User: Which sequence fits this backbone?
């Protein structure tokens, strides 16, 4: 520029900055970012720790019932799940993700689904199936199409049936109530055999079963906590329970009453409650839109009772939810039209 | 910052700030920097010369056609001309003017209430009114919405103007009626400003005090009952938006014959202290902060705009621009940190999205760089960029950033396609 006036010496980065300020030490280094600059403060780890807190009543009750073997199964399950996660991180050359608690939650939930008499190798295999096969090979947290603890449970139940025959595996325990698995009794002998299980007993955990899935009251308390805090989606949990209730009610009303148990029995026995509040509502394998959530939960409940009442298996929980997991991507296509969406004619 | 409440299944409610604090007039800065948009391919300075004397309110233009211009906010001499690249790659010529400290007013503004005058002088008023749409025969604007709401949380600059400068807004609306030929003026204000707003002669509407009700797309939907379709603008629907500050500036221009050159800015410090200031357009942000006794150190964020949609910038030497409604300083610890953790499909974003976008699916496509699929299947173009999804994201994915990137990348490919045809 041809100009007679002497221009000010421009600052290297900011030519419009006053010359006297330019030499005044280094620039302040601000963090450049896009909005939003606020966050509501939630983290993955907090979410998972709350999940574990909510599971504690049921776990502690199970430990109180079965003692040291239950502690062993739960501790081994949580520990192994985290170790498998760490091994997967190492193998995949990814940053360690065991601190976020998702492996620990998976391990805890799987432990809760096992009987106290589960051998150590079963726990090791189970956590491998849950963490590596069901989650890590799909890409890790958030990518699992199926519920990890349930997938592990389903494989274990098919492979090692004896361990999950609770009548057999828990026969050495005498806890002061009938030590037979209510669902097995129902399957084998019909409703005549389940008269000894009062609904109150079932809710208070006076029933044989897996470590963390018999104490109905504790599971309900944990589930209510998770629903109120928004850590699980209440739509799925409640519609699952409603699905079980309605289906069991219909069977009882219109079916053979010597064969089919009432809705309350189905709600408080087997894996129903732990499934409702900790398994069916697992984030990544369930839908997020309202209608799909309702359909997903209700259909899983329906399938559960169908399998229990007319299927080959004693408890339908793992299979019913896994089947619905497969339908999740399709179900979640049912969604409200986005505001402003332009619909093209086909 | 509002944390997640204990009862987590309800949506968080983010409320706009109300009750603007009084405005503090800042003294004339030693220099101002004005950002003159560069036309594509233009080489910048044109007729402007370093050393050139300018008056307050003088129209500074670079190109030969003189269509793009800035209004000098001080009296002094041009001391620097430099290219500057802003957000989204927009190119500007940064014009630095050393101020004398007193205002010698330029009198070329002729006070004729016509479109030509508006296009020539009123396009660079504080608040950034745009008259180009009225010059476009394809757009038929029948309604002007005067937005007395602020665009982001914490900010109160526009509310201040509605509260205290209703007379100017009234004059401004009269002038705009003559300039644009539009009859229908809606003044959208928060509930508590209805009384002040009724005197302006505009049809007064209230918007709920919850974010994002003040965003144009939400005003269109909630108050006008018109949905802006993906890829369209309010102008395509016959509506254009002016900020209350811009309308008051138009009013002040016609009332005094001088073009307003001061901008109302809400300044928020790290401790949450809020100050409203009025400063010359082009004042360095650092000087505004200094005047408000707000400190900003290494590792802090210096946010131009508000906490939800503002952009944290890299230097406090950047100037206050026509649309800089707020300057928020946020300490490093207080600011939202993003992660590269994957989406866990918790659905918080889907529940909070005001336009019902399946954000959980959208973000997967955006992360994979599949922007066209994101737009065709998962409603990328419907997004109104309120930032609520990223605010509630458990995985702390920078969702809004991904969305803006996706839109930008698509605009580049669309431009390239248009150029090749």
Assistant:
């Amino acid at each position: 520029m041809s100009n007679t006036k002497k221009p000010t010496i421009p600052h290297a980065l900011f030519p419009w900055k006053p010359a006297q300020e330019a030499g005044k030490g280094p620039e302040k280094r601000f963090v450049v970012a896009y909005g939003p600059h606020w966050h509501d403060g939630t983290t993955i780890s907090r979410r998972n720790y709350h999940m574990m807190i909510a599971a504690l009543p049921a776990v502690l009750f199970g430990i109180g019932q079965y003692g040291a073997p239950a502690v062993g199964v739960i501790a081994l399950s949580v520990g192994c799940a985290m170790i498998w996660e760490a091994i997967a991180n190492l193998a995949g050359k990814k940053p360690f993700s065991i601190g976020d608690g998702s492996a620990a939650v998976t391990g805890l939930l799987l432990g809760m689904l096992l009987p106290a008499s589960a051998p150590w190798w079963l726990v090791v295999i189970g956590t491998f199936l849950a963490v590596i096969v069901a989650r890590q090979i799909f890409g890790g947290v958030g990518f699992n199409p199926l519920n990890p603890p349930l997938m592990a449970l389903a494989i274990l139940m098919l492979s090692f049936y004896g361990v999950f025959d609770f009548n057999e595996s828990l026969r050495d325990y005498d806890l002061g109530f009938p030590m037979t698995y209510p669902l097995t009794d129902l399957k084998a002998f019909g409703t005549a055999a389940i008269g000894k299980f009062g609904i109150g007993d079932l809710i208070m955990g006076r029933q044989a079963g897996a470590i963390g899935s018999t104490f109905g009251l504790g599971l309900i308390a944990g589930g209510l906590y998770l629903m109120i805090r928004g850590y699980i989606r209440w739509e799925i949990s409640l519609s699952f329970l409603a699905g079980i209730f309605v289906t069991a009610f219909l069977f009882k009303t219109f079916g053979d009453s010597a064969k089919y148990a009432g809705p309350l029995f189905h709600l408080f026995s087997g894996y129903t409650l732990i499934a409702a509040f900790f398994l069916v509502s697992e984030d990544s394998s369930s839908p997020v839109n309202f209608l799909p959530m309702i359909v997903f939960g209700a259909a899983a409940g329906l399938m559960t009772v169908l399998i229990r009442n007319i299927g080959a298996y004693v408890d339908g929980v793992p299979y019913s939810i896994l089947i619905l997991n497969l339908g999740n991507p399709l179900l979640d296509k049912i969604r409200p039209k986005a505001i402003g969406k332009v619909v093209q004619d086909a | 910052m509002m944390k997640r409440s204990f009862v987590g299944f309800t949506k968080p409610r983010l409320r706009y700030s109300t009750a603007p604090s009084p405005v503090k007039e800042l003294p004339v800065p030693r220099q101002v920097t004005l950002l003159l948009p560069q036309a594509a391919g233009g080489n910048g300075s044109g007729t402007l010369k370093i050393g050139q004397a300018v008056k307050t309110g003088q129209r500074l233009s670079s190109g030969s056609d003189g269509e793009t211009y800035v209004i000098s906010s001080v009296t002094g001499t041009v001391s620097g001309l430099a290219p500057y690249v802003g957000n989204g790659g927009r190119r500007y010529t940064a014009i630095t003017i050393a101020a004398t400290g007193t205002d010698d007013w330029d009198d070329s503004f002729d006070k004729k209430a016509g479109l030509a005058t508006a296009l020539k002088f009123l396009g660079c008023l504080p608040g950034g009114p745009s008259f180009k749409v009225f010059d476009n025969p394809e757009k038929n604007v029948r309604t002007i919405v005067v937005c007395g709401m602020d665009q982001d949380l914490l900010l109160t600059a526009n509310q201040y103007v509605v509260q205290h400068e209703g007379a100017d807004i009234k004059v401004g609306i009269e002038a705009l009626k003559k300039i644009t030929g539009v009859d229908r003026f809606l003044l959208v204000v928060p509930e508590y400003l209805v009384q002040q707003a009724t005197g302006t002669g505009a049809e007064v509407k209230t918007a709920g005090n919850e974010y994002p009700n003040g965003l144009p797309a939400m005003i269109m939907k909630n108050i006008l009952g018109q949905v802006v379709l993906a890829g369209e603008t309010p102008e395509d629907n016959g509506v254009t938006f002016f900020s209350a500050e811009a309308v008051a500036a138009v009013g002040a221009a016609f009332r005094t014959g001088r073009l307003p050159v001061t901008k109302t800015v809400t300044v928020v410090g790290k401790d949450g202290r809020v100050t409203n200031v009025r400063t010359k357009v082009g004042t360095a942000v650092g000087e505004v902060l200094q005047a408000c006794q707000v400190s900003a150190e290494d590792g802090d964020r210096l946010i131009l705009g508000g906490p939800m949609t503002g952009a944290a910038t890299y230097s406090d030497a950047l100037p206050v621009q026509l649309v800089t409604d707020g300057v928020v300083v946020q300490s490093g610890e207080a600011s939202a940190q993003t992660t590269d953790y994957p989406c866990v499909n918790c659905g918080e974003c889907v529940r909070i999205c005001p336009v019902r976008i399946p954000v959980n699916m959208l973000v997967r496509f955006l992360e994979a760089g599949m922007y066209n699929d994101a737009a065709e299947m998962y409603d990328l173009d419907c997004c109104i960029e309120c930032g609520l999804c990223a605010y509630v994201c458990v995985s702390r994915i920078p969702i809004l950033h991904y969305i803006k990137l996706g839109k930008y990348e698509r605009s580049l490919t669309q431009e390239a396609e248009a150029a090749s045809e």
